[in-house]
Amino acid sequence: MPFPDYHLHTHHSTDSDESLDNIIKQAVSNGIDEICITDHHDIDFPMKYSYEEGVMAFQLDFDAYSREIDEIKTKLPQGFTLKKGVELGVMPSTVKKAAEYAKEHSDLDFLICSTHIVDGYDPYYSEYYEGKSPVQAFGRYFECILETVKGFTDFDVYGHLDYIVRYGDYKDYVFELKDYYEIFEELLKTIISAGGGIEVNTGSLYKNLSYPHPHKEILKLYHDLGGEIITVGSDAHFSKYVGYGFDKARELLLECGFKAYATFVKRKPKFYDII
């Protein structure tokens, strides 16, 4: 049985036009019997990256989002489970707002915390990398995540920890954990001590990477430090990518020593054997 897909986006996210119906149909077709929708809400996302003039991007209309999920839950295929989550974009400057958001949305099943903005820049765009070496650009991104988790821990998993490696014009650069080991050691210890986890995100496999997020060395370090909470998500913004690369995720988790993965109900993890 494929992993439940715990990172999915629909038309409620600024960067997706996909319908919830299509996501569910594709999951069923792929033999997946549980999914969690995690549409984007990025707190204080910079206006300069808005898709529409005068309208801030990545602001989730939670009421409309929640209503659609609750309505579709009444007509799901037999044996299929639909969970309600949010991917919350957080920066060091917004940790207090993030804590308030998590408290106000206590009806969620699952909350991913992610970093998409660093020092006011989106690493998706080339301007972030100007004047920085690869190690400097990547290192500052990882430092930003560490600063964030020192101020905000009310999340279930941290999303795509090395997301930045997807981007940047570094064709010959290969990520090496040794360049950022101290940052990741402190970062992962902080997440674990707060009762949180991380995800295996296969979205990188249909982008430009040969491995899922995070890199195997990061995943192994998390395991060796005592980390146990792992979810698996495709980060699909189009239905065709639901469950993408989950066989590779399974191999990676087993190789790193993990025996179980997690799903969530009302922010509480439930563990299942990886088989």
> pLDDT under 50 segments (min length 5)?
none
Indicate the mean pLDDT: 96
Q: Please state the CA-atom Rg, rounded to the nearest Å.
A: 18 Å
Count of domain modules: 1
Largest sheet: 7 strands, parallel
Can you tell me the CATH class? Answer: Alpha Beta
Describe this structure in words.
The chain is an alpha/beta fold and 275 residues long. It has one domain (5-273): Metal-dependent hydrolases (TIM Barrel), CATH 3.20.20.140. The protein is 30% helix and 18% strand. The protein is built from 7 helices and 9 strands; from the N terminus they run βαβαβαβαβαβαβαββ. It has helices at 20-29, 62-73, 95-104, 134-151, 181-193, 216-224, 246-255, and strands spanning 5-8, 34-42, 81-89, 110-114, 157-158, 197-201, 230-233, 260-265, 268-273. The strands form 2 sheets. It has a 7-stranded parallel β-sheet. A two-stranded antiparallel ribbon has the order 8-9. Strand 2, helix 2 and strand 3 form a beta-alpha-beta unit. The longest helix is centred in the middle third of the chain and has 18 residues, at 134-151. The protein is globular, with a radius of gyration of 18 Å. It starts with a strand and ends with a strand.
